Amino acid sequence: MVNEKTELWQIIHIPDKPPISPAEQPTVNAFASVIEPKLANTFIRRLNQIAPLENLRHVKRIQKRNDEKGKNQLSVILCLASETENDKQSNNLPENVQELINSYQLSPFITKVCKYAATSREEWEEQCKLWPTSYHPPTYNINGITGFGEEDSQSVFDFMKVAVDLAKSGGGLMVNAAVIVDPSVQQIIATGHDQIYSWHNKTGTENSHLKKPASFASNLNSNGASHLTVFPNNLHNGPERLYVGVSCLSPWQWCGQQLDMETSCYLHPLRHAAIVAIESSAERDRRLFPGLLHTEKSFEVESMQSSCAGSPAKRQKTNLANVEDGKELDAHSEATSVRPYLCTGYDIYLVWEPCTMCAMALVHQRIRRIFYAFPNPNAGALGSVHRLQGEKSLNHHYAVFRVVLPQ
Amino acid sequence: MESQGQGEVCSPETLAYMELAIEQAKHALDCLEVPVGCVMVESGNVIASGRNRTTETRNATRHAEMEAIDVLLEQWQKNGLSVSEVAEIFSKCTLYVTCEPCIMCAAALSILGIKEVYYGCANDKFGGCGSILSLHSSSNQPHNSGEVAQGKGFKCTGGIMASEAVSLLRCFYEQGNPNAPKPHRSVTLQATHN
């Protein structure tokens, strides 16, 4: 039953740059011609010499399409055309291209090709409708950018369910919730939810969240997706009032929302879910790896640097059996595992797209991937108002995904 | 971009407060933390100070500004201030910080509705007050108007004692940060000319 529901779930990569619709993508004109398939190699070799596509390396020279009879039809780009030329007046062709046309009796036509390489898979798919291009995912290779396997998707959905349940755990008022996960061992590292009106002192929160991960994880399957319908698919379909408790949606609203509170007893306007979760993961770090000397740390930083460039799967996968039972690893085995540098290699699941403060906090803490369920049009910093994953000057970049929940 | 350079002659008070922020930054350096410090001033009184504490806490969000803000909220919680009183005091607060607030801190200062910020050197990689984003400028508003509160801007002036702030940072990075794979706050050698 649960599986039936989850088929409606979707994971969408939110790229570094706003996706450009096919109509708005800058294009250039090129002369192309249908050719005999057996001559394809000859043409490619010759044309790469006499009319190389210098600044259009992402554009494929050959287009393969099925014609009306279902037969393969190959077209080749002969050379670029000026923007004013039309199909019939191909007078300005370079002489050697013209010779080629004459000797093979080609009939050139004008086609549009995309001027810039695609920055996302979605963009690439749109580009190929005009003329095929090649797509190279970002140089930082973060798992998921090129798609998720079935197993990985299921795990993403399961962790998002944990975040959604946490967002509803406060009773009537919905809040944002965050779950930090080590994907290499499928383990919840820390959780947090908005606490802007429920900030207890630093010592007060210490114990409560230590138990949460285990119990949440073990409840994953029984919780299912049945009660997710509380959330409308589109934020604006629901009564806005339901979401006044979500700090990231209206970060400036804390002084307007009194919520029957006379005193600032538990007030902390910056205790957004992501900030709380980061604090909790830092506490865990200090608890599990107390008092490491600087010499040890620097050694570790080096090893983290080399591994984070590649795959995080290099991280030890010792206690997978334990994790599948939903238990937290015991102190002994964790102490022997590699101490992480901040949240390097970790993922975070948030119910709402984080605000600018939270999104930058996640850059600082070196989160590897962010999954959120609902966009935040007022204050979101992962594509809605700002797009921190595309700020080149920052020293760390995470990959961002939206997880669309079933209606 | 809204922030003014140090061409403007700043008052002796401004320098005195920045001096206190520099003291905090030096304290951070002594503790092997990235040397950034700040003080929060309301009605002429220093009501809180803070310095970077990211290494000790293993929490990279524990910047000087966040530390000072927590000091204040904890204190006001003890004194039983109301939510509106908290909002009112924040709106009268001026922050003096040795380095331009990062994007996170600038957003936080906007959320709190702080009045004004004076900073030392610019933050070329992370700055949220003009270098990368301009979160202090109130024109930076979401499109969705109506009842939802909009981002609050604050007045921002950079370049106060920038060379002192930079030399502390340079000092830190020369001795090497054993904790970060890459520098955390950029060392801006040209900060004095911004």
From TrEMBL, chain A:
<dbReference type="InterPro" id="IPR002125">
    <property type="entry name" value="CMP_dCMP_dom"/>
</dbReference>
<protein>
    <recommendedName>
        <fullName>CMP/dCMP-type deaminase domain-containing protein</fullName>
    </recommendedName>
</protein>
<dbReference type="GO" id="GO:0005634">
    <property type="term" value="C:nucleus"/>
</dbReference>
<dbReference type="GO" id="GO:0005737">
    <property type="term" value="C:cytoplasm"/>
</dbReference>
<dbReference type="GO" id="GO:0052717">
    <property type="term" value="F:tRNA-specific adenosine-34 deaminase activity"/>
</dbReference>
<dbReference type="GO" id="GO:0002100">
    <property type="term" value="P:tRNA wobble adenosine to inosine editing"/>
</dbReference>
<comment type="similarity">
    <text>Belongs to the cytidine and deoxycytidylate deaminase family. ADAT3 subfamily.</text>
</comment>
<dbReference type="Pfam" id="PF00383">
    <property type="entry name" value="dCMP_cyt_deam_1"/>
</dbReference>
<keyword id="KW-0819">tRNA processing</keyword>
<dbReference type="InterPro" id="IPR016193">
    <property type="entry name" value="Cytidine_deaminase-like"/>
</dbReference>
<feature type="domain" description="CMP/dCMP-type deaminase">
    <location>
        <begin position="283"/>
        <end position="385"/>
    </location>
</feature>
<dbReference type="GO" id="GO:0046872">
    <property type="term" value="F:metal ion binding"/>
</dbReference>
From TrEMBL, chain B:
<feature type="domain" description="CMP/dCMP-type deaminase">
    <location>
        <begin position="12"/>
        <end position="140"/>
    </location>
</feature>
<dbReference type="InterPro" id="IPR016193">
    <property type="entry name" value="Cytidine_deaminase-like"/>
</dbReference>
<protein>
    <recommendedName>
        <fullName>CMP/dCMP-type deaminase domain-containing protein</fullName>
    </recommendedName>
</protein>
<keyword id="KW-0479">Metal-binding</keyword>
<keyword id="KW-0378">Hydrolase</keyword>
<dbReference type="InterPro" id="IPR016192">
    <property type="entry name" value="APOBEC/CMP_deaminase_Zn-bd"/>
</dbReference>
<dbReference type="Pfam" id="PF00383">
    <property type="entry name" value="dCMP_cyt_deam_1"/>
</dbReference>
<dbReference type="InterPro" id="IPR002125">
    <property type="entry name" value="CMP_dCMP_dom"/>
</dbReference>
<keyword id="KW-0862">Zinc</keyword>
